[in-house]
Design brief:
- By secondary structure, the protein is of the alpha/beta class.
- It has 2 domains: 169 residues, Lyase, Ornithine Decarboxylase, Chain A, domain 1; 245 residues, TIM Barrel (Alpha-Beta Barrel), CATH 3.20.20.
- Strands 4, 14, 15, 16, 17, 18, 19, 20 and 21 form a 9-stranded mixed β-sheet that branches.
- The structure holds ligand LLP.
- The site of ligand LLP has 22 residues, from helix 10 and helix 11.
Length: 422
């Protein structure tokens, strides 16, 4: 958890006690550490350096413009999946030659916008999409560079909702059919089909699925070369895991040990699309306890001013997020041994009118009262990016901390924002 520390009974983001941020900017509040974002991107860059990869940060994980700008300046390219993400990447000053465009349903309008912007390449997911890109490229007098996203039928052994490379998933093209599409590439004179893309799922806690997919590529790539295909790139997508509970998990260098030799062996340029790894543990969501109440059988409910609209992962995937008070004993995540704090078992919930609005059930937490400030850890990826205004709750404020300075990178929404356009 670099970027966050416990000092003198208080939780800090870099050089600022997070309590001070909550007082200044209100709650719920997303707090990002600039140092953590850069360190995690740097760790990936270092781990994969030998392959000279193009690292395209996956914007869907966290699309805040200031964060994109920070990552672009640090050398990241971008993985986009919509016209909106293209707009954000360009607005953040991204180099179009480092943008790759994925997604099963790119519309002709989105394809044209990306071609006009001069992005590096598309990750095509169907032959119909290749035909659409061919038509758009012809009209604009350009050539569309494309990789074909293949479905290798590899089980990433992650959550069913974020597994993407099994036979019954909507993503990519089954390998035998992919071979036919490559063989038919001559039908699309305005398309250069010169890459393979695959994304197995997210998060992936073992190198085995990557190893399995690469073994399939060891057989598939020579088949394509035998067809005369001039392959240039192999994009392995994202999926690099983070620890949500402090337990040890594999690191970028572990993935790199499997991936780098394989792409060298295949003689292809490596592209990767990490999202979660860069953003997840670079942020906290701060929330204030509004009430504490007791239910049947002494069940204690700690009711926050943050809800599933702010962070939907627990409600949507049953995801675990570590939660701990900003003041008092150090969180076990930020201290060496297990916490010596006296703990009580509580349910930590939001105010939304759904039972699924629950961040944690039967969770040990130091005794907590109304007014206390809690931190929900690992909130930087798929947190704000998946937030909504459900129950007409304006979206949270986001601040970026650099040393002892904090800057609002997204203003808290207002009630007027809620009804704009209605
Ligand atoms: N590339 C492609 C084509 C993807 O579909 C994704 C994520 C990524 C890259 C980035 O994956 P990452 O490095 O972040 O694992 N909302 C879910 C995660 C959905 C991931 C969707 N695709 C969650 O909160 O866990």
């Amino acid at each position: 958890m670099d970027g966050f520390a416990h000092r003198g009974g208080r939780l800090y983001c870099e050089g600022i006690p997070v309590e001070r941020l909550a007082e200044r900017y209100g709650t719920p509040l997303y707090v990002y550490s600039r140092a953590a974002l850069l360190a995690r991107l740097g760790e990936l860059q270092g781990a994969f350096r030998a392959a000279k990869p193009l690292i395209c940060y996956s914007i869907k994980a966290n699309s805040n413009l200031s964060i994109l700008r920070l990552l672009a300046r640090a050398g990241a390219g971008f993985d986009i999946v919509s016209g909106g993400e293209l707009f954000r990447a360009l607005r953040a000053g991204a180099d179009p030659a480092r943008i790759v465009f994925a997604g099963v349903g790119k519309t002709p309008v989105e394809i044209r916008a990306a071609l006009k912007a001069g992005i590096r390449m598309f990750n095509a997911e169907s032959e119909a999409e290749i035909a659409a890109a061919d038509a758009a490229a012809a009209e604009l007098g350009v050539r569309a560079v494309m990789a074909l996203r293949v479905n290798p039928d590899v089980d990433a052994r992650t959550h069913a909702k974020t597994t993407t490379a099994r036979k019954d998933n909507k993503f990519g093209i089954a390998l035998p059919h992919a071979r036919e599409i490559f063989a038919a590439r001559g039908r699309y004179p305005h398309v250069e089909l010169s890459g393979i893309h695959l994304h197995l799922g997210s998060p992936i806690y073992s190198v085995d699925p990557y190893r399995e997919a690469l073994a399939k590529m060891d057989r598939f790539v020579p088949e394509l070369r035998a067809l005369g295909v001039e392959l240039k790139t192999l994009n392995l997508g994202g999926g690099y895991c983070v620890s949500y509970d402090g337990s040890a998990v594999i690191r970028p260098r572990d993935y790199a040990q499997v991936i780098v030799p394989a792409v060298r062996r295949l003689g292809l340029q490596l592209i990767i699309e990490p999202g979660r790894y860069v953003a997840a543990n670079s942020a906290l969501l701060l929330a204030r306890v509004v009430y504490v109440k007791e239910g049947w059988n002494q069940r204690r409910f700690v009711i926050l001013d943050a809800a599933m609209n702010d962070l939907v992962r627990p409600a949507m995937y049953g995801s675990h997020h570590h939660i701990w008070p900003a003041r008092g004993p150090a969180s076990p995540l930020l201290s060496a041994g297990p916490s010596k704090a006296r703990l009580e078992t509580v349910d930590i919930v939001g105010p939304i009118c759904e039972t699924s609005d629950c961040f944690a059930k039967d969770r040990p937490l130091p005794p907590t009262r109304a007014g206390d400030l809690l931190a929900l850890f690992s909130a930087g990826a798929y947190g704000m990016a998946m937030s909504s205004t459900y129950n007409s709750r304006p979206r949270a404020c986001e601040v970026l901390v650099a040393g002892t300075r904090a800057r609002v990178i997204r203003a808290r929404e207002t009630h007027e924002d809620l009804v704009r356009g209605e």
